[in-house]
Structure formats: C-alpha cells, structure tokens
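re: that complex we talked abt at group meeting.

here r the seqs, copy pasted straight from the sheet so there may be weird spacing, ignore it
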Amino acid sequence: MDLISNLALGFQTILTPLNLLYCFVGVLIGTLIGVLPGIGPVQTIAILLPTTFALPPVSALIMLAGIYYGAQYGGSTTSILVNVPGEASSVVTCLDGYQMALQGRAGTALAIAALGSFAAGCFATFLIALLATPLSELAFQFGPAEYFSLMVFGLIGSIVFASGSILKAIGMILLGLLLGVVGTDVTSGVQRFTFGIPELVDGIGFVPLAMGLFGISEIIRSLERKEKREIIKGKIYGFWLKKKDLKEAAPAIARGTLTGSFLGILPGGGAILSSFISYMVEKKVSRNPETFGKGNIRGVASPESANNAGAQTSFIPLLTLGIPSNIIMAMMAGAMMIHGIQPGPRVIGSNPDLFWGVIASMWIGNLMLVILNLPLIGIWVKLLTVPYRVLYPAILLFCCIGIYSVNNNIFDIWLTAILGFLGYLFVKLECEPAPLILGFVLGPLMEENLRRGMLISRGDPSIFFTRPLSLVFLIMAFILLMVITIPTIRKKREEAFGEEK
Amino acid sequence: MYIKNPKDFKAGLLFIMFGVVTAFLSQRYPIGTAAKMGPGYFPFLLGLILPILGAGICLKSLSKGKGVRRNIPIRFRPVLFVLSSVVLFGLLLYPLGVILSALFLIIISSIASEEFNLRVAFLNAFVLILVILVIFVYFLKFQIPILPFFFKGWI
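got the structure back, here u go
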C-alpha cells in the first residue's frame, strides 16, 4: 500500500521533537490570532514569513499550516462567547453559537465546535493523502493551454465566492492581473510599469499587497464602527457532551465535513465559503429550520466542521497543481518559493518528506488543538477583554515590522500604505479584494502560459478549445459563470453573503 | 438620467481610469503579434477590457427617472492617522531606529480611535516596544535598526 507507506513517511517526519514543537507553536499562534478579532491568518503568516527563513522548509510549512487551521478553531471561541467572529470563517457560528451561550450552553457549543473541527480535520487529512498522488500525476500531462484554462476556471471560481456584484468582481480580477504585470517581464527582460523605481523591478510584493488590502484597510474600517463586545459572564462549564447532543450534531458534522472538503478543493474556495454554504445546507435539510439562529447545535457543528475541512483541503490544488486557490494558499506558495521549492506536481516526487510531513502534521496539529483548546478557554476569554484601541496599534506595528523584514526594504512599507488606502477605497465602493489578490498571484503564471500556448499554436487561439482537458476547464468556467447569472441562483448567492452583514 | 448606485458608478469610473492609463502606458513596450507576444501585449489587452467593463458597470448603475443621491461616507480621522503613522514609520526607521519609530507609530495611530487616551497609548507603546525587542530582535534575530543613528558611535 503506497498510501500507508507514504503516511508512515509523513508521520516519521512530523514526529521529531523539532517539528512537533513548530507544529505546536503554529497551532497555538493560530488559535491566539483566531480568537482575537481584527487579526487573521493572512496578517500573521505575512508577519511570520520572514522568521521562517532560518528554519528547515518542512518545519516552516508545518508551522504556517498550523496557523491557518488553528485560526479556524480559535475563531469559533470568539463567535460563541462574544458574538463577534474572531475570523471571517466563523461569522455564521455567531448565529447559533452565541444563542447557545446565552442559554447557558457555551460549554456544549465550544466542545461540539472543537469535536466537529477535529472530525473534519481527520477526514480532510485522509482525503488529501488519497487525492494527492493521482492529481499530481494528472498535472504532469498539463501543457500551457491546460494551465491557462485551469487558471481561468480558478479566477471565475473566485467570483462566485466573492460577495457583491459579479461585474465588479471581474474588474477586480483584471486589476489583480494588472498589478501582477508590474516588474521585469520574464520572457523579454523588459521592465514594465516600474516608473523608474528600483524596488519595483521585482514586482509588487505579495506581502505589502495582502497587508494593505486586508490588514490596513480592515483596521480603518473597524475604527469607523463603534466597538461592541459583550462577553458571556460567569464560569463556562459543561464541556462533556451529552449523548443527546452528540446524536443530534453527528449528522451535521458529517455533512459539514463533506461540504467543506469539496468546497476547499475548488478554486476560490476555502474556509470562509465552506462555513457559509454548510450553514445553508444544514438549514435546508433540517426538519425545523426555524430553530436556526436560536441556538441550534447543528448550526454550530456544521459550519465549524466545514471551515476546518475547507481550510485543509485547500492545500490540495496548491500541492498537486501548483495553483493557490485562496489568499492563504498564495502565502504558502510564497513561503515554499522562499525555500526554493516550486509548488506544483513535482513536490510530491522531489520532496516527499516535506509533502507527507505537512499532511501528517495536520492530523497531529488537529489533535493538539482539541487537547489544547478546551482547557485554555479561560485564557482566551481574558484575552478578549483587551480593547480594540489597544489591539490595532499593535497589529499595525507588527505588520510594519513584518513587511520591512521580508526584504529589509523601507519602500514596501510605503507601498503598503498606498495599497491600504486603495483597499479602503475598494471597501467603500463595495469591491471585494479577494479576487484581486488571486488575479495578482495567478497573473504572471497566466500570462506566461498564454504566451507559451500561443507560441506553440503559432498565434491560433483555438489551441485552448481543441485540447480536451483545456476545453473541459473552459466549459466548467463557462457553466460556473452562467450559473451565477441565473436570477434565482444570484438571489441565493446574495442571501448566503447577506448574513455576513 | 440619475445615478442609482453611486458605489457601482464610482467603481466603474475607477476601472475605466486604470484601464485607460494601462492601455496608454503599455504602448511603450513592444506589443508583438499573437504568436509572438511582446511584453506589452498582455497589459494592453487588459487595458482594453477594463474600460469596457468599467463602462458596463457605470451604465448599469444609472437609471431612468428619479433616483436618490447618496454619498459614500468617509471618516477622515481613521484614514488620516492610520495611514500617516505607517508612512512616518517608514520615514523614521532608518534615521531613528525601531524603538523611537515604533513609539511614533503607536501614538499617532492611537489618535485614529475615538477613544484616544494618551496615557494608554504610551503604556501600550512601552509594552509593545519591549515585545519587539525581546521576540523580534533577540529571539527571531530580525535585521532592523534599533537605536537612532547618532547613537551608532557610542555603542
């Protein structure tokens, strides 16, 4: 059995004291920033990216991955106890989680969230191990045309999952592609849109872009609103689940896990989308949907399982095809490249210990999270009493130091400020920044493959339609685009995101 | 004609602007042919599509008959203080070192909040500078100037 020997290699890698330590540090930091509203895995990974230079690549990736799925655990704590999502992926957990807490069932809600996440994490780990080898073998047959079409599909996917107007989302993708053009052209060596600024020769940095669009603009936006936090008072007890609760939540966990695993693999998917969709699914299949939003345990179990499953399966396209499907995965790709590993189908063959080590670490990390999370809840609650006016200058400072340290470059700090303003403008104009980031990451790859494809076909664009796999991707992209423009589905989509506001 | 949705309208204008500038600028680079694309081809293509899309968004945001004009509220206090604190941090980092520039960053960015309190801000700065020195400088060994330039000869 290949699978078993592969997983054995993975566990051999993770079960060294050093890697276990980094896994632990990762999930601990992840939970911490998951608990704190206003700082998420994007900012944290960006800040910590430079610190991983000194680590072996396996340890670095294990830690960064731990931050991502650890944040999914932490986010639920804040949602349940304070009614403020610690993470965007825990927004829906507020609906029923906080209601459960009000009814004195905070312990139950927290326990089911942790248990659901763990179950989902186990399944997702297994799924990654199962799918990785065949998918990366498939990817070896890809030529430039297939890659280009796959990326088109990915970008269209990111529209579906962004809230708001479809046309604006397409515009944001194009802007992202455009920002990705800045810098030296790989094929000809010509410097494009650098305006004579030497720091732009290597292009706009990913970290300043992500920090500007998500970190800084988010801080400004949060400051416009009045802060409102009410922490559940009194001791939280009752972590031991009753049989009745378990029986009720189990099918929801199963459904959430499946939905999340599937959506995580899709381009543009990931933790946030998974939690929203699974909540909707749960409400649909329920015999009494009116109990949702009033403390239904399934309304906690399902999205919490889904976001963890989605967080983990979103590693599949990155590790097998080399295509990051969301912002976090784009950062992971960046981290891999810093260590000289090109994400893609070759990773599995050339760095098997890294590949399987990271996968095995997810399972270990999930185990740590369950053990870690419940006893530490008291500390997390204390942390939540830190007011935002103290928190945001700290976030800002860590961001600035993190940005500077990526390249030891002052220019990147200014670039972040500019992009932060742009990001604030986008928020005000209700333009979702996520498609822009994805366009930015995929842009250079897309251009390269477009040019190579057209070179092979001597300028005949039909190459994208005549190669079967490429055609399949394009048809899938087209169907996706058609589906979201159908009025009833569009309404559903707006509903799904409407709960965010 | 009235603008029904000013947010969409302005977003459309933004896309048009970006597109036109790009299309204009990318002509400085060799465009090439479809078979042998030059460095200007891809951006030029984007520069053509963006304004069309932007125009579409603008048109959709218009409506016949009467509409209500709503402005987009922008609060200047957070925008101004958050952004200027970041820019200033960049300006001060090399000459003054991280301790002083962090102090400025925290004080100025704290003013962005409506509940600004100078004592809290100073206390916050004190704690955070300690954290930076211990974690980032001592443990993680970040390469970052610590003290102002005029201390260099002394230590």
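couple things i noticed - The mean pLDDT of chain A is 83. Chain A is about 75% helix and 0% strand.
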